[in-house]
Amino acid sequence: MSKSTDIRLACVEDGLDNTGFRKIAAFIKKINPNTKVAYVPTANHRNLVGVLMEKAGGNLNKNDIFNVAKFMAEGEIAAFSSMTQSSKTVYKIISEVRNINPKTFIIWGGIHPIIQPEDAIKHADAVCTGEGEFAFKTFLEHFAKEEDFTKTPSFWFRNNDKIIKNRNLPLMTPKDMDELPHLSYDDGEVVYRREKGFVKASADDYLDYSGLQYGTVWSVGCPLHCTYCGNTKFIEYDNAYRRIRHSSPQTIIDEIKRAISKQPHLSTVAFHDDSFLSLPYEQLKEFADLYKAQIEIPFVIYGVIPTYVREDKIALLLDAGMNRVRMGIQSGSDNILEFYKRPTKLHRIKEATEILNRFKKYMIPPSYDIILENPIETPEDTRATVDMLYEMPRPYTLNIYALRVIPNTTMAAELKKRGVETPPIDKNYFVDYHRTLGNCLVFALTFWKMPHWLYSRLRKKILPVHTEQPLYPILFATVRSLFYIKKAFDHIRFMDFSVLPGRLGYVLWKTGIIKFWKKLFLRQYNLSKYQPTQTKLK
Ligand code: B12
Ligand code: SF4
Fold it and tell me: Which ligand is the nearest neighbour of the Cα of 81?
């Protein structure tokens, strides 16, 4: 490269945990050391009320937008990364960067430009429509030498009114993935604090956003194509996205070891992979053996698809240190699962929850994703979800979402065709649930299996949210608070501070209480005792 370019790279999302951004940031910094990596968190985790009340995607005020833009405009390149929910914040920052320094070249990468490049390119000079590392390297080589860069693959460019659209590079191979630098983590990044401006990201910032958890992604790709998911778009661009790709197990283990050496209080590793359990047993075994031998803290698997839950895989991973899973269920109605194009039928979901339940002594209760407030639900569909939750083996908890439709997905097109309106993606899905009896029951069933006579009376009154019906704000506030208290209790019982951000976990770690508690009260699963249920039944 002929000269080092002044690059400002900002992640405009909620948190400091964004894996794709941290991947590209480490890479760009390696090829161009004059790169400043910044986080612009869109939710204010220093203020609990703020977290709950703000719009998803953030409420940075005019002054904040100006401060961020000023920092970005000092670069020759101002590069952003974001999802769709914070895209409006990015529009505002870009517009301000243009006012401050019209010469700064503006790039937008990440999930929003991948899923909706037509939107992102209206604002930026260039958008990255796929995996960014090798494409950005090619772009930068031309940019630095002041050569024509508009043929760079995996990029769209705006040239006055003309949009130049280049094809994406083939997806990275496992070998490519092994050769990338480890994800950026506590490597001198700065973070924007409201009212204060940019400061060097400290342990406190990591605690505020992620608690004692280190988040990462080992495998990329998912074989399914649920209508509401960005995966429908990735597969549309490149069918190879269905294949799961990952670096070698030792590479991911080394990345985790590096993170722990930087922040020794880390007490959980979270794998946000789309489809972790669909990896073949042999590959999981290779990973599990290395994890058990080299990492002392437990891990949680977020992307679990019920179809792939197998007892032997769960036993293997528990032995290696897994202490929790999060699994997508979404609905208890076959019609709605069909509408989402989720291939796992209800009997398989039931089987998956039963398998997980067999290991309940060793795990924090599994958490299942549920989507409420689907505008096409009939009363039978809404009741079917609540029935499923009533019968499901306990304990469990839920991640409860009110449906937000990601623009440009199959579902967005389907709902448009049906003339159905849904709330915008940046409407806060944590706050804006309807206070219907059905929603109250969903929260309540996570901590109370009420007597059957009471349940059957209540269920008859359940209606979908778009139907005229009485609302129960006080009951809703009560069951929702109890839901959170139960969830927090389940985690504290396991001394797990992955969902409880802030300093409490840190203090317990520092005083040795976490270590002591785990030694004394927690049971570690031992694979040598594993007996397949089938064999036992014979
Ligand atoms: C890990 C993950 C999370 C983690 C961490 C966040 C993160 N971004 O990593 C957590 C759990 C926190 C999370 C939360 C949410 N997530 Co999420 N998450 C993912 C997931 C499963 C993997 C992301 C990933 O690491 N991919 C692998 C990397 C290598 O790819 P990548 O991120 O695209 O990054 C590459 C390129 O984009 C590019 N790139 C990125 N930035 C830049 C910048 C420049 C300048 C350039 C040139 C290139 C570039 O290079 C990167 C490296 O190759 C994706 C699904 C998916 N398969 O992508 C969903 C996904 C991104 N999440 C999604 C959503 C909706 C959410 C939530 C809003 C869910 C919710 N309702 O709460 C929240 C938002 C929280 C927030 N941070 O604001 C949607 C986003 C849809 C959209 N259009 O925005 C996705 C696509 C899943 C889906 N349902 O379709 N998520
Ligand atoms: S299983 Fe998950 S990641 Fe895969 S397509 Fe469905 S929602 Fe997306």
Answer: 1
